[in-house]
Write a structure and sequence with these properties.
CATH topology of the largest domain: hpI Integrase, Chain A
Radius of gyration: 23 Å
Strand order of the largest sheet: 1-2-3
Low-confidence stretches: none
CATH architecture of the largest domain: Orthogonal Bundle
Shape: elongated
Largest sheet: 3 strands, antiparallel
CATH superfamily of the largest domain: Intergrase catalytic core
Helix content: 55-70%
Structural class: mainly alpha
Order of helices and strands: HHHHHHHEEEHHHHHH
Mean pLDDT: 84
Length: 293
């Protein structure tokens, strides 16, 4: 089974252009499922709907979140669809299984004032401060996922036209860069990265103090550090900057389809969750402006 799991991972990496984090999630879920099958003397090619249902109930019984159970089913379903595709099996055993309903949580966001306070924390007095300023401005200006940001190369930037190209995911997307983000990026490229980089062959846009590509963990630590410097009580992660980016665009008149394209959402329903914040803003404006509110 492990051989076909590896073949499957290679297939979806080439076919769907998934991020490394997503691929690792698939791999982890499938290896865990394989372990379950081995423990119960089940042949992966003869797995039934009931076998998979019992496995998922076992995960749920361990206290795992609904989202974790749903993700496991998605991984197993994708694997068996692949086995059908390559004619290893005739029927997909997950065909009639339904994912548990996941309640969509309201995303946490920062106010415009909190964003400004956070972005003003890095000071342009040293190499790290210049880099951190550029990174935070960039994250809020583009709304990109942290995994997408750390995968960017210098060649993905088009400062002349004012946009960045994100090749992560199923399709490329060009995302505009605001003037403040552009200014911080130019400062970083000229006065920080050019000094930090040790190897001329290094193409990563954002690098650490050792001159190598910044990691996901490194990015998170930077955001946490400046959150504490700003004395903001809310929990702030790179993803909350992404939520704030989308919400503030919507509140200031951007249309939902454009925001969907910039965020890289394949389904607009994922973007519609931000509508609730627009409704709140509209009610506030109505209350302030309408003579009979």
């Amino acid at each position: 089974m492990e051989k076909y799991i590896n073949n499957f991972l290679k297939f979806i990496k080439d076919e769907k252009k998934l991020s490394e984090n997503t691929l690792q999630s698939y791999k982890r879920d499938l290896l865990q499922f394989e372990e379950y099958l081995n423990e119960n003397n089940l042949n992966y090619l003869k797995v039934t709907e009931d076998n998979i249902t019992n496995y998922l109930k076992g995960i749920e019984g361990q206290g795992k979140k609904v989202s974790t159970v749903s993700r496991n089913l998605a991984s197993i379903r994708a694997f068996y669809q692949y086995l059908v595709r390559i004619k290893k099996i005739k029927k997909d055993p997950t065909q009639r299984l339904h994912s548990p309903k996941i309640e969509k949580r309201i995303p946490s966001i920062l106010t415009s004032a909190e964003v400004e306070l956070l972005l003003n924390q890095p000071k342009n007095v040293d190499l790290k401060g210049i880099r951190d300023k550029a990174m935070l401005e960039f994250a809020y200006a583009t709304g990109m996922r942290v995994s997408e940001i750390i995968e960017l190369n210098i060649d993905d930037l088009n400062l002349k036209e004012g946009y960045v190209t994100c090749a992560s995911g199923r399709r490329k997307r060009n995302i505009p860069l605001g003037s403040l983000s552009m200014k911080a990026l130019v400062d970083y490229l000229e006065n920080s990265r050019s000094i930090l980089v040790k190897d001329e062959k290094e193409k990563a846009l954002f690098i650490n103090i050792n001159g190598r590509r910044l990691t996901r963990q490194g990015f998170w630590k930077i955001v946490k550090y400046y959150k504490e410097q700003a004395n903001i009580s809310k929990d702030i992660t790179p993803h909350i900057l992404r939520h704030s980016f989308a919400t503030h665009l919507l509140q200031n008149g951007a249309d939902l389809k454009s925001i969907q394209n910039m965020l890289g959402h394949s389904d607009i329903s994922s973007t519609q969750i931000y509508m609730q914040f627009q409704d709140k803003a509209l009610k506030t404006e109505y209350a302030k402006a309408h003579p009979r509110a």
